[in-house]
User: What shape does this take?
Amino acid sequence: MKAIVITEFGGPEVLQIASWPDPIIGQEELLVKVHATALNRADTLQRKGHYPPPKGESEIPGLEMAGEVIAVGSKVDNWKIGDRVCGLLAGGGYAQQVRIHKDMALPIPTGLSFEQAAAIPEVFLTAFQAIKWLGNFQASETALIHAGASGVGTAALQLIKAIGGKSIVTASAGKHDICLRLGADHAIDYKTQNFEKEVLDLTDRGGVDLILDFIGAPYLERNVNLLKTDGRLIILAFMGGAQAPHLNLGLVLRKRLRIIGSTLRARELKYKIELTQALRQFLWARLESGAIRPIVDSVYDWSEVGLAHRYMEENRNQGKIVLRVNHT
Ligand SMILES: NC(=O)c1ccc[n+]([C@@H]2O[C@H](COP(=O)([O-])OP(=O)(O)OC[C@H]3O[C@@H](n4cnc5c(N)ncnc54)[C@H](OP(=O)(O)O)[C@@H]3O)[C@@H](O)[C@H]2O)c1
Assistant: This one.
């Protein structure tokens, strides 16, 4: 088969389409002909050599895909050849074929294209895990979502609205419209406004119950200041830096805060299967009714993967960047 390989660690130009061995499926796995995959920030880190795949996983980047089943292992009883599936991967999505465990695969919701379906798994699983499982977010609560127009942010906003809670986002000004359309109650331009002051003003100085953070060190002190008693801070990335100079543990104790870090890729298969099935329960009917939708910013042919990576690294996307995988 053909796949997008990282020829050496470096800029977007190191991504090249090349021949690669076909995946070999296990007894509980499906072989999927990939029609679309989607970009994640992790792919750009992997390309630069900062985020190696977990042991035993494909060196090909790509954490999600949508396609059709072309072979099934001997112990697969829930899928058949021809089924349209999408799913989270630990790697290997930037390829014409990929293997996936039978219980990690999800049916493509009725009415959605391969490109739309490829935009679902990583960001909705991440946001669902953070909001429901780690954050235990309730309808009576308010969340602060940083990078609100990111792939994960656009999923999180819709999940919070579906739960019935309130949300405030930070994002650059040109991205506020999409956040508000997806259910955010307020949007703050973190480049020109002090988000701590703005959130306090918007909440009658009460603060928020849950924060989803991707920025890390430069936001830690303000995030802790903004949490209410029993508040939860979920740290999913540190795009602004990892070494935080100040943290007032007195506030953490007095307010009984929980600061939780999480990643998805290296988790055990059992955990990922449980999360996938829980997301299916919560989300699939909502996707089929159109109440929640995958947010696709742009679709590139996979031969333009370098352009797509550059576009993401310039922070230009609102929602997901999808790659259409060519089989000719
Ligand atoms: N831990 C996990 O399980 C997990 C899973 C999935 C993703 N992630 C991480 O979550 C983050 C979001 O992923 P994604 O794929 O949704 O990202 P994305 O769509 O590429 O969006 C990221 C956005 O963050 C904002 N941003 C970037 N650098 C910033 C900075 N230094 N300060 C403030 N804002 C900044 C930019 O929007 P503005 O124009 O608004 O600045 C940018 O467009 C990534 O770091 C990713 O690695 C973690």
Observations:
- The radius of gyration is 20 Å.
- The pocket of NAP is lined by residues 40-42, 122-123, 126, 147, 149-152, 171-172, 175, 214-215, 236-237, 239-240, 262-264, 312, 315, 317 (CB under 6 Å).
- Residues 123-261 form a domain with the Rossmann fold fold (CATH 3.40.50.720).
- The CA atoms of residues 90 and 265 lie 5 Å apart.
